[in-house]
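Q: Sequence in, structure out?
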Amino acid sequence: MAVDQPNLSDPAVDEAEDQFAKQRYVARLRLLWNARRFIVRCGIAGLCVSTVIAFLIPKQFESTAQLMPPDTQSSSSLALLAGLSGPGGLGMLAGDLLGVKSTGALFVGVLRSRTVEDRIVSRFDLKKVYGISLDEKACAKLSERTAISEDRKSGIISITVTDRDPKRAAAMAGSYVEELNTVIAQLSTSSARRERIFLEGRLGEVNTNLAAAEKDFSYFASTKGAIDIPEQGKAMVGAAATLEGQLIALQSELEGLKQIYTDNNIRVKSTQARIDELRQQLRKIGGKGGESTESADDPNAPYPTLRQLPILGVPYADKLRTLKVQEAVFETLTKEYELAKVQEAKEVPSVTELDAPVVPEHKSFPPRLDIISFGVLCATLAGLLWLWGAARWKEIDPQDPGKVLAQEVFRAFEASVPWISSNGAREAITDEVPKGAPSDRPSAKGASAGA
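A: Exactly. Output:
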């Protein structure tokens, strides 16, 4: 004889299930109400633990430096393409498609380079600050605490450094800007820089040669008395011509006097003495008389004679020409050197600081209020899960194989750790879970009775 199965769509069964669901909901609310002290204790414990953790975490401060977009005046096609990358995005898209990077991206790469990081690590002794003995790990730690980014629209570069010391954080952010300027200046390979370096070295050589030429010319002029050979020649020829004219006039006068007076006359002797003096002066100007062509009549003479001037003219002209050439080369190279420096300053990308790093007044980490709130929430949720888990555990049939296995595992663990009081744990669970809690599903007996 077939057994009649209950009709699951019977209104009586549905009503019984609804009533059971309400009882289950009320039972869970009663469970929370009875365990309200336990839940409060969990929240207080979470508050205490999270507060201690929040205040044990060291403070960290952030300092930010912002740089203006680089202003490059290079006439190359790459610089022109980079210059077209404005807010419109056309040049930026072209640069991305063609693989052309802007100078801002170059600056970001330099700031993240190992060269800059090594200098900052050495400058602030970060191995001692971070408690690290290896340079590579110190650089990695610095890289973790440094955020460098470039805004694609405005091109502004931001450098943010995080450190426990606010003053050191600001100093490190500023040192990034200084090291960027130094590295860019050192590694610039523009044509103007190469020209400036060449002119600088050549200018040093010419300056040495010019000093030697000046010293040689001055020594020659002082020892030979050759101040200006052409002008000295003109002056001496003029003086000799004047003396020669006076000599001819006196000789004519002397001949006339001899026609009238004897040789012992005072006027004849006076005129003869003047003639002799003029001849002596002419010999001094012209050098030794007669047919002698030797130089240097008197070593103590202040100026060379007319016979010496042609001999001194060749070395004088040679030394003067060398001096003039060195002066002209030095003047030309000096002008070119100054122009190269100006051009180099135009071609080297300039780093303009928009916002200087300041000492932060407020910490950036940890967010203590958020940590405390999260800790209280987690502790409260853990307490609720513990209560619901314990209630569910009590509802399981003691003969259930899974429950039996779990009890065996718990006893084995309790035996290996004797300082855990299992009775206390079980008593706590028993105290918090109300007796007579309904099971998850209505029994068949209850369903039949409802029917």
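The mean pLDDT is 74.
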